[in-house]
Design a protein that fits this description.
CATH class of the domain at 26-121 and 180-190 and 207-325: Alpha Beta
CATH architecture of the domain at 26-121 and 180-190 and 207-325: 3-Layer(aba) Sandwich
Structural class: alpha/beta
Strand content: 5-15%
Low-confidence stretches: none
Number of helices: 15
Order of helices and strands: HHEHHEHEHHHHHHHEEHHEEH
CATH topology of the domain at 26-121 and 180-190 and 207-325: Rossmann fold
Strand order of the largest sheet: 2-1-3-4-6
CATH superfamily of the domain at 26-121 and 180-190 and 207-325: SGNH hydrolase
Length: 326
Amino acid sequence: MRAVGSALLLLLVIETVLNGCLVGRFTRTALLRMEEMTSLEAPLIQIFGDSVSDSGINERVIAGALGYSAAEFINFSIPGTTAYCAYPLLKRQIEAGRVPQVVILAYNDRSYTIPLVPKYLGRVGSWSELTEAVRFGVPLETMLSSLACRVSFTLRYREELNAIARTGEGWDYFDPGLNQPTARAARYSALPVEPPSRRPPAVPRQINSEFHRHLFRRSPETTASLGAFFDLAKRHGVHVYLLRMPKTEKAEELHDKNGFNKECVEFLDELVQKHGASWLLRRPATLPPECFVDAVHLDAKAAFDLSLEISRLLRGAPRAPANLSQ
């Protein structure tokens, strides 16, 4: 028994040390973006999304095309988040006195069906957001997992740690020297303002079709959280646009065959009709694999082209800020 007690004490010490010393890449990035949302002046137009829209939408191109300053159009997409997170993020902004005129929801389609609640609540969520999750119908098992992730380093980062255990690689995910997130001003200035050239990859891209074989399943907690998001936006005069991100030809083909696209668009159409939102891009272009760096993320050239298209769409969008037409 003494040996067991000693082992448990050692584990507790290790957990405490790791909790105090190591922070993962997602956590660092999300915390910085959330700090910027609540400290910078509210933009006229902002984007909420995930990693696909973070790297796939060039805000500098859009701002330049529409005559906006860097402070008036901001891409607040956070890699690793899903559509479930739109409500807590907007609520944090509004509580800090930052109320945008327009929010563009630009999550990739999968982000509407996979909530990833423990990842958000267990790593960067507040205690009030935990209690609100109960109101959104988050299952008890998920709530307990989120609570466990808040107190335990190994549970919080179990996916990353499992990958490290399998491959022996990946500790750089926790390296603060390699994973310091870039502040907004530096991110903005690094974006290309001229069409970048497309460089063929050193190794031919292999687009994993298994990634796209998931069916679209409505998430009750995401639906409830999005309902709260739209209600909050409406109360504060914020208009919401929906934008679907482009997919590879293979993904589009698979999603047409298995009904994913049909179910996803029906779900988003219902949100638009119920909450008075507007479509900005309902049927994005299908792109060849050379336009992507992996299964879902656009390369810089495709992101540039998409951003020009978004600029054109915003000029003619209903309820757009007045100076778009100037």
